[in-house]
Amino acid sequence: MTQLESPADVSESSAKGRIAALLGHSAVRFLAAGVTSTAVDMGLLFVLHGVLKLPLAPSTLVAVLAGFTTNFLLNRIWAFESSSPVGKQTARYMVMAGGNWLGTVLLVGGFVKLGLFYLLARAIALVILSVVNYFGYKYWVFRDK
After folding, report:
1. What's phi and psi for 83, nearest 5 deg?
2. What predicted TM-score, i.e. pTM, was given to this entire model?
3. Which residues neighbour 37 within 8 Å (Cβ) at sequence distance 6 or greater?
4. What is the pLDDT confidence band of residue 11, given thresholds at 50, 70 and 90?
């Protein structure tokens, strides 16, 4: 602290620095990308299944694909700031997307059979698979060599 800075000024600049560092972390950006892609996914699922009354499995598939596309772009460009060739990343992402789709369908279907509301079931599946995705994206899909 200099003679011209008050303790409040130092505290405010420290807080701003901590917030900036937090917002710059890939995990926080991954979560923000996830929230955005989840809004796309769940919003579309609600429209397809809840409003249009289409079957749950195909509605979930379409919603997941839309969410995954949004997620891929936000994570590649923003969360992990990757500059590696997009083709290899797309292939790796699609491997994870296939596993995520299968995991989502199994988890959502299983939770619904246990009596959970389908949107709550989807949200729980999303949390479980998000942990797997963060590490998969960080260390495999979007890793720059």
Report:
1. -120, 10
2. 0.65
3. 67, 68, 70, 71, 74
4. low
